[in-house]
Structure prediction request, 110 residues.
Amino acid sequence: MHEADEALVQRIRPLMKRRKGYSEQKMFGGVAFMINGNMCVGPWKGSLVVRLDKEKHDQTQSEPHVKPMDITGRVMKGWALIEPAGIESDDDLKAWIERGVKFARSLPPK
Prediction:
């Protein structure tokens, strides 16, 4: 796992592990944090991947430090890549995790 990702996992885990429906799964060569079986957040090369509402994709993409999630050559709508500067503070990281958890909870459990 990318060194920056390992550090990010250590920051994410305490903010996730007490939540109802929480689990972790190995994915993309790293760790995906799940709620009720739905991916919620995870590290990607030092950035944070967050799953959000597809309908609000353009709105989310216009926020500071947000980039399109594109690991396959095409943009994955409903996913955002938050650059390290956007999750530097614990409050910012927590806010993005809250958004991902809220969306994951709106999905049917897997």
